[in-house]
Amino acid sequence: MGNITDTCHDSEKIDFFYNNSGKPINTEWNKRDYVIVTLGMIVCFIVIFSNFLVIAAIFKNRRFHFPIYYLLGNMALADLFAGFAYLHMMFHTGPWTIKLSLSQWFTRQGLINTSLTASVLNLLFVAVERHQTIFNVQLHSSMSTRRVFIIVLLIWLVAIIMGLVPQMGWNCTCHLSKCSTMAPLYHRSFLIFWAVLNLITFSIMLAVYTRIFLYVRHKGRQMSQHTSTTRQRETMMNLMKTVSMILGCFVVCWTPALVVLLLDGLNYDKSLVLGLEKYCLVLAECNSFVNPIIYCFRDQDMRRTFKEILCCNWSQSHKNRGFSEVKFHTVEQENGKSRIPKAIERSNGTPLIHASSEDIPERSD
């Protein structure tokens, strides 16, 4: 038995590893396979369409040419990649799995790892950016475009590395006793690392958004005591609702999958892991089309741009230049909108958007 465990089995077929881990592999299609593939493809097309719409809207409307929207655009790109990765998986799952070579199987799983890593990292950087912007009382982030693109490259570099790590050696082809159940070629220690890393990232995001939420609630109480401005109250409530939606959807979509991955890495009950696997992964993928709804569909300018794109109107947004009616403003930003012209430059002093007089509210004094 020691020789079997310590010998590498790179020349074996997929079914060898599935049989070793105890995960059933179908050779013929059944109703469950059809349901899973059909639902998976529907989710994939929704993810691809919604995130493509977000990317097109950010590219089309010059009001969105700010660091926060570049990050949101990259998040949409990551989720778009996730849609294609899952679509690729739908054509290489079920009875098709047994026909895959080891490299094809690693590629299938690597695409999923890359896409999910990029999505999570984008969420984290968006949270940090919003935290800095709100607490520094800025209309938009002071990050330069160069810094934003460095962050984007860093996100994709880390995501690609995470996708390649198992294929580069952190697998169980030479340690069959350490093979996981959900991913029969993955080492259980890698699943533990992957799950814990994402849970830590989730905890950081939770801490950041909780701090924002407490700040917003505190400012909301001050506003109710010192001012009766309806616009300010509405802005504060919109931000509180957005933060709550972000936290709630992230917890609902990601926690079950991370917990199941961790249980599999700890070699917990195989029947429980296999029973929850498909549904947890699909639920995690749903976060890829929930994100555009949370971050963008609550923005009136974004909704108008969506309508223009769907109606094939590609000129209107370029003519009307100004600031997006973004729902992430702070109280001080609402009070300081008369000073908007001073805030429309990037950190390097280059004008990004030239606001017209119609975009600048009149002073109350």
From TrEMBL:
GO terms for cellular component: cell surface; endosome; plasma membrane. Pfam families: 7tm_1. GO terms for biological process: angiogenesis; posterior lateral line development. The gene is LOC100693650. The keyword Thylakoid does not apply. Belongs to the G-protein coupled receptor 1 family. It is a multi-pass membrane protein. It comes from Oreochromis niloticus (Nile tilapia). Residues 50-295 form the G-protein coupled receptors family 1 profile domain. Keywords: Cell membrane, Disulfide bond, Endosome, G-protein coupled receptor, Glycoprotein, Membrane, Receptor, Transducer, Transmembrane, Transmembrane helix. This is Lysophosphatidic acid receptor 2b. It is found in: Cell membrane; Cell surface; Endosome.
